[in-house]
Structure formats: C-alpha cells, structure tokens
Structure to design on (440 residues):
C-alpha cells in the first residue's frame, strides 16, 4: 500500500487532531484543499528522478492547514543493502540546521539576554577585534586591515558577518574566497560536514585569529556564522548547544529523531549518501576530500562526537522536521508549546538585508534573507509557482523545505545526493503548489 494511501486511511480512522508516528495530525488531501490526482502527478515527477538514477530515493511531505496530507517514499535508502526508503528514514539535513539554530538564538533574545544589534564580541571576546581581507596590488594578493565595525548578532543571523565557508573555495572564480579558504584550511577550520576533533568553542577561537571576507554588514557571504551562533547559545545558556536544543526545543516539540549524533540504536535508519558517477550513482563511503571541501558519510555517527555544528550538523526525519516547521507556521507554537512569540517569528521571516544581493547560494526567486531563512519574492522576481513571503532553505545533500504563511503550506524534500544533479528542489515546489485546488 502506498504511504499516502496509508496516511489517508489513518486520517479517516483517527479522531481529529490525532498524531501519527510523531509527526503532524493527518488529513485526507481533499479536506485541506489539495487534489489527490494532482498529488499523483507530483509523485510521478519525483519517481522519475529515481528511475533516471539522479537520486537513489526520497521522502516528500506536504502539510496544509496544520495537517499532513501527503507523505510518500521513493526508491532506496541504501541500494547496496536493499534497504527501501521509509517514512522514518533519517537524513543528514546539513544547512537545514541553520533555521533551528536561528530559533535557538531568538529564544534567548526573547528572554532579554541581548539585542540583535549587540556586537557578538561582548559575549565571545575572541571575535571582538578582527581584520578584513583587502586587495594588495593585483587581484590575486591580499592584505589584512582592521575591520571598521564589529560583527553583530544580526550580522551572524543574516550571513552578512564576513565569515565564510572553507568548502566554497572549491567553486572557483573568486580569488579572495579561495584565499580565505586556504587560510581556513591552514588553521584547521572545519565546515561541520565531516568528523572533526574539535568543538564550536575551538572554532570561534580559530576564527578570531583569521580575517573576514568583507566588512560586517557589507555583503551576503554564506559561511560559518551559525556555528558561531551555536557557541553564543552555549555561552549565554551555560549548557552545550546539543543539550540546549534537546531540552528546550526538540523535547517540547516532540522531535524524537533529530540529533547531532544519531544513537547507535537508530543508525541503521540513516539514508546513504550518493554521488553522480559514469554508471549513474555511486554510494559515498567514508570521507571525500577535495582541495577545500571535506565531507563524510559517517560524521553523524562516527567519533569524535563533540562538534555541535549549528550550520550543518543535524540529522532528522521528515516527520520531525515538519513539527519544527509547523511551529513556525503557527507563529511560534505547536500543541500548546510556545517556542517564540508571533512578532519574533514575523521578524525571522522578514527580509533583513534590503538591497544586498544574496548571490547564487540562494534559490531563484529570493527577494532577500531574514534571520536564518531566505524569503521569496513576488511574480516579478520568481516566474514559477509560489507565494510572495514564503520562506525556505535547503541542505548540502539536496534536502529542502519551505513554509508558505499565505497558503498555510509546508513542503519537505528529503534526499541524500551531492553534488545535486537536477533541479528536483524547484520542481518539487512547483508540483506541490499545483496540487492546491481550494484557496478558501
């Protein structure tokens, strides 16, 4: 029986508001204004990626008006072992950790511990006095000069801090970014995608000795800002970032399968990572290392287990992550647990960077960037289906989500492939929107 049919059957049998498999309450598509026939179209499109060997497998989830109306599994979680994809398969969500980190920071913000305009150096003195890389002579040489302004907490939340990612040096075409990646490599700065014998406290110390890519607030530069924010949470709260998330966010929201390091008893549920090969797909085993990029298939389960990367470290399921997203869609509350105030959620999903371009790291159609999430523009910016003001993000291994407050819609795509070989994220979004047949 197909997973969606099973969900629909449960929705009929269970009383309204009943939970299932630690996920959201379930509903038949028609009761939340979605078309069963059009959901079939969506599933055919995603299945086509499996059939074409662009991905090994996937899980898709759509919720509307507070209920899960679509959940489908495709292909294999581990092709070599013959393990099919399941609704409770655990995925490395990588940069989909970032909105979780943002929420943790905003929880402390609401408790009055700091202002977003505060220099982060007030709380992390290692970052109180930094340099900036500037050209020295021709375009391939650089020098360090003192920064003219400090990094604020808002700069970290909006990726305008000037802190970069080491792996982006492999993209080429930007001499300054490549130079910074070399400095990061020499200093042992890790991106959070492989086993690393260090902590986010160590990371902040190392970043305090390295230059910024640009003046804080001057440009959007994707990077380790969320790892720094994780350390800020530790310093303010007095507990590890892992413990803060477990006790203050995951437990209250019923997110039972979300971890920095997956317990041994659940490790068999993790999907394998795949990468394109001449024969279609090859499973990633162990560590892949480029000039600047280092990632591994085992970092959520391997040792050491001390690096709580706020930018890339979490693993989760579609069910768990849907509960986190529904909390945001509900303006900060889920099942009686108030995480954030409605005004704070509104601040999070409002563009914070104005005319600063976000660049190629953000999907087409973004009008800007809020506090940890990209914000979608209108029809003049994005010609595809969607709604102005929807907010979203994705992960290194091709996972993706969006939240649409206007349509009361959540979409989640869970895949494990790097590099991505298709436009599956955008096509999934388009196919999800075309299933809406009742907008009242």
């Amino acid at each position: 029986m197909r997973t969606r049919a099973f969900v629909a059957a449960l929705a009929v049998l269970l009383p309204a508001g009943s939970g299932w498999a630690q996920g959201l309450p379930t509903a038949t598509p028609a009761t939340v204004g979605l078309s069963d026939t059009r959901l079939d179209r969506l599933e055919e499109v995603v299945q086509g990626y499996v059939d074409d060997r662009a991905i090994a497998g996937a899980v898709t989830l759509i919720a509307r008006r507070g209920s899960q109306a679509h959940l489908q599994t495709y292909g294999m979680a581990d092709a070599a072992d013959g393990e099919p994809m399941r609704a409770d398969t655990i995925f490395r969500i990588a940069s989909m950790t970032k909105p979780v980190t943002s929420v943790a920071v905003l929880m402390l913000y609401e408790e009055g511990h700091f202002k977003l305009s505060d220099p982060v150096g007030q709380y992390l003195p290692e970052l109180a006095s930094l340099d900036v890389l500037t050209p020295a002579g021709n375009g391939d040489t650089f020098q360090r000069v003192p920064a003219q302004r400090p990094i604020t907490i808002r700069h970290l939340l909006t990726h305008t801090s000037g802190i970069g990612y080491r792996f982006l040096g492999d993209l080429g075409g930007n001499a300054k970014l490549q130079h910074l990646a070399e400095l990061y490599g020499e200093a042992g700065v890790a991106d959070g995608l492989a086993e690393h014998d260090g902590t986010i406290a160590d990371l902040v110390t190392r970043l305090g000795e390295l230059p910024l890519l640009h003046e804080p607030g001057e440009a959007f530069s994707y990077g380790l800002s969320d790892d720094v924010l994780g350390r800020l949470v530790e310093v303010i709260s007095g507990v590890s970032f892992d413990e803060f998330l477990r006790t203050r966010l995951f437990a209250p929201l019923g997110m039972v399968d979300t971890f920095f390091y997956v317990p041994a008893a659940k490790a068999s549920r993790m999907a394998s990572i795949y990468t394109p090969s001449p024969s279609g797909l090859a499973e990633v085993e162990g560590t892949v290392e480029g000039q600047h990029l280092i990632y591994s298939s085992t970092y959520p389960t391997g040792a050491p287990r001390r690096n709580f990367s706020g930018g890339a470290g979490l693993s989760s399921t579609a069910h768990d992550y849907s509960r986190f997203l529904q909390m945001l869609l509900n303006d900060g509350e889920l099942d009686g647990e108030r995480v954030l105030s409605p005004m704070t959620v509104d601040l999070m999903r409002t563009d914070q960077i104005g005319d600063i371009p976000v660049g190629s790291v953000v999907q087409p159609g973004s009008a800007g960037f809020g506090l940890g999430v990209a914000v979608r523009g209108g029809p003049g910016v994005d010609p595809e289906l969607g709604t102005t003001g929807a907010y979203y993000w994705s992960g290194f291994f091709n996972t993706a989500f969006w939240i649409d407050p206007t349509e009361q819609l959540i979409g989640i795509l869970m895949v494990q492939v790097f590099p991505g070989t298709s436009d599956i994220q955008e096509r999934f979004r388009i196919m999800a929107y075309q299933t809406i047949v009742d907008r009242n």
